[in-house]
Design goal:
The chain is mostly helical. It has five helices and no strands. The longest helix has 58 residues. The chain is elongated, with a radius of gyration of 36 Å.
């Protein structure tokens, strides 16, 4: 190896990119958890939405809800692109290097300084692999970082829009549980009245009681 310092530099670059891969995988857990939480919040509002609403609050809610869903979808897309579908380049395993060493020994056996030639060939091969793997992994990490940045960017917008959608959902009385619906009461059996003559009971007349809808 003519330049040991350059060899050490590429070695550090290789391991730096490998560590960056692990760090990126760890960082993606937070936006993934937030994505799941926001999907649950939006699903809650849809499940409890009073159908048939046509007021101003309803239109505001639908616009904010659809916009939040769109940005949430974009954030999820970039999160998936950042997390999966990348093939990192790694150094060959020890058995491959041992086979390469045996090949070098057989190739340079006829030379008087064969040991030095074999050692130089192996170091050159490792150096070339460091350069190749570090370059490939750096491009992958750069692409993953871009998608991670877009994930966070769209996620923040989706959270803000989702918050205002919930505000319109709450203050606009769009929750179906906030409305008291009409209640019908039916008497399906006679009521035994104490003190009735000859032990007879007086069956009451079936009635129905209703209450008008009113907001909570």
């Amino acid at each position: 190896m003519k330049n040991p310092g350059l060899y050490a530099f590429y070695e550090k670059l290789y391991f730096h990119e490998v560590e960056a891969r692990e760090q990126m995988t760890t960082r993606l857990q937070i936006p993934l958890a937030l994505l799941i939480s926001i999907v649950g919040a939006l699903g809650f509002m849809v499940q409890n939405l009073e159908r048939g609403q046509t007021g101003a609050w309803a239109h505001i809610f639908f616009c904010l809800f659809l916009a939040s869903t769109a940005f949430l979808t974009a954030s999820g897309y970039h999160c998936i692109r950042s997390a999966w579908g990348h093939d990192y380049s790694m150094l060959p395993v020890a058995s491959d290097w041992d086979d390469y060493h045996e090949q070098c020994v057989g190739t340079y056996a006829i030379y008087p300084n064969n040991r030095q030639l074999v050692w130089t060939a192996i170091q050159t091969g490792i150096h070339a692999k460091y350069v190749e793997c570090a370059s490939v992994n750096a491009r992958i990490n750069e692409l993953r970082s871009f998608h991670y940045h877009m994930t966070i960017k769209y996620l923040i917008v989706a959270v803000v829009l989702g918050f205002f959608a919930f505000v319109s959902f709450y203050f606009g009385n769009l929750d179906k549980s906030s409305h008291n619906k009409a209640t019908e009461v039916r008497l399906v059996a006679p009521i035994e009245l104490k003190g009735a003559e000859n032990g007879k009971s007086t069956p009451p007349t079936a009635t129905a009681t209703t209450t008008a809808d009113s907001p909570r």
